[in-house]
Amino acid sequence: MHRVEHVMGFPVSLRIDDEDVPESAADAVFAWLNEADVRFSPFKPDSEVYRLDRGELSADAVSPDLAEVLGLCEHYRAATGGAFDVRLPGRGLDPCAVVKGWSVQRAAELLRAAGARRFCLNAGGDVVAAGGPWRVGVRHPEHADQVCAVLELTDAAVATSARYERGDHIIDGRTGRPATGLLSLTVVAPTLTEADSVATAAFAMGAEGVEWAAGLPGCEVFAVTAHRGVLRTPGFPTAGERPTA
Predict the structure, then answer these.
(1) Which one, of 197, 198, 203, 171, lies nearest residue 89 by Cα?
(2) Measured between alpha carbons, how far is 174 from 63 in angstroms, rounded to an integer?
(3) Which CATH number covers residue 176?
(4) Does any domain span residue 12?
(5) Among candidate residues 142, 155, 146, 141, the one with its CA nearest the CA of residue 186
(6) Number of domains in the chain
(7) How would DSSP label each residue in 127-177?
(8) What is the pTM of this model?
(9) d(CA 182, CA 184)
(10) Tens digits of per-residue pLDDT, 40-80?
């Protein structure tokens, strides 16, 4: 089964190699991702996030899902000394850096509950791979038509934070200025909730974020610095220069 839909402002592709998984499993994945977009977007006036930020919803009245997301945001704010912060001065509440990985990981759990054992769920380049091995390319931060690494993943997730798609959009909450110490940072972790959040949080920290992320349990890191240096942890699961799946 293979399906691609546009959700949350980026393409989401789903490939399921199990023959006995019903089409309704894919339906549930995209229904959930669309629901998450409606509920947690900081740009939609009816979303929980928007209403909470505008004072239309009290902090003790948010849903358990949003409470979980905000708890993760606070965890990474504290862990990075404030470099990662979804409540930057002069800006509205924006938990998208956590919501994306968290919601896609939840979608992967829906697939597993439906009986899927070998699948690849790719949300704008951030990937949950079940079964395997799956080969996943890491885009070169300066050349869109090239990869700088090829991963081989089995039951893992990978996410990249970088400057190449949206420019200097990740802010170091400690300084209020764009984080420019890295060109890209890729994290492999057991779940996309971890991989995506850690990648963004570490990128916000700059070069020091590479060591921080590498020290987290279960995380492997590949980073390209602003000076074009490459840093990687020994366990980063590269597969060599082979074609991507």
Answers:
(1) 171
(2) 29
(3) 3.10.520.10
(4) yes
(5) 141
(6) 1
(7) EEEESS-EEEEEEPSS-TT-EEEEEEESSEEEEEEESTTTSS--EETTTTE
(8) 0.93
(9) 6
(10) 999 999 999 999 999 999 999 999 999 999 999 999 999 99
